TrEMBL record:
InterPro entries: P-loop_NTPase, Small_GTP-bd, Small_GTPase. GO terms for molecular function: GTP binding; GTPase activity. GO terms for cellular component: endosome; plasma membrane. The lineage of its organism: Eukaryota, Fungi, Fungi incertae sedis, Mucoromycota, Glomeromycotina. SUPFAM superfamilies: P-loop containing nucleoside triphosphate hydrolases. GO terms for biological process: protein transport; vesicle-mediated transport. Its main location: membrane. It comes from the Eukaryota. It comes from Ambispora gerdemannii. This is 8681_t:CDS:1. It is found in: Cell membrane. The keyword Nucleotide-binding applies.
């Protein structure tokens, strides 16, 4: 499957780098969304994430602008909830995922949104993703209801399917376009930075990410 927005390692111009975290209840498909976005793959029998997984992916927005996401895919099980602040701390953007076939998963997503709005960076860009549209015959959450909530809460909103790839790249591209790229400069408060139009120096990892290999 071709996608002009993804993976242009030789793209010239400006490279921006952002920390993105995925949050949501267990089994809503967070890891599957990331796998589809990063590797364009889907696994029906993917095991639950333990702690968090780390991946990266780049999006080529235009001939002069590339965004790199450092993605933390968090575990949804309740026993890992206390670890979440470790991953959303200093995050520039977040995807909060629910399962359109499980009504309770949207309520959990709303609680994550509230926590991010209360605890995370006040400028964080948050997207709400209703996953598993390939199971629309089992839909328990109407698109209009979730979209109205997202609008009221100031969130980006997409319904997605990691299985069919529907709207997955559009979701992450929309986040990339929402980032305040025109405001970034060397040593900016945001982790994304622009260095002399040559891109971010990826050989020196940031010092304040509180990353944890779990």
């Amino acid at each position: 499957m071709s996608n002009s927005n993804r993976q242009h390692p030789q793209a010239p111009g400006k490279l921006y780098q952002f920390k993105l975290v995925l949050l949501g209840e267990a089994a809503v498909g967070k890891s599957s969304l990331v796998l589809r976005f990063v590797k364009d793959q889907f696994d029906d029998y993917r095991e639950s994430t333990i702690g968090a997984a780390f991946l990266t992916q780049t999006i080529h927005l235009d001939d002069n602008t590339t965004v790199k996401f450092e993605i933390w895919d968090t575990a949804g099980q309740e026993r890992y909830k206390s670890l979440a602040p470790m991953y959303y701390r200093n995050a520039n953007c977040a995807v909060v995922v629910y399962d359109i076939t499980q009504a309770s998963s949207l309520e959990k997503a709303k609680s994550w949104v509230k926590e991010l709005q209360r605890q995370a960076d006040p400028n964080i860009v948050i997207a709400l993703a209703g996953n598993k549209t390939d199971l629309s015959s089992r839909r328990a959450i109407e698109r209009e209801d979730a979209q109205a909530y997202a609008h009221d809460a100031g969130l980006l909103f997409f319904e997605t399917s990691a299985k069919t790839a529907a709207n997955v790249n559009e979701l992450f591209t929309s986040i990339a376009r929402k980032m305040p790229l025109d405001q970034l400069a060397p040593n900016s408060r945001l982790r994304g930075s622009l260095l002399n139009n040559k891109g971010v120096d990826l050989t020196n990892p940031p010092q304040n990410n509180n990353y944890c290999a779990c």
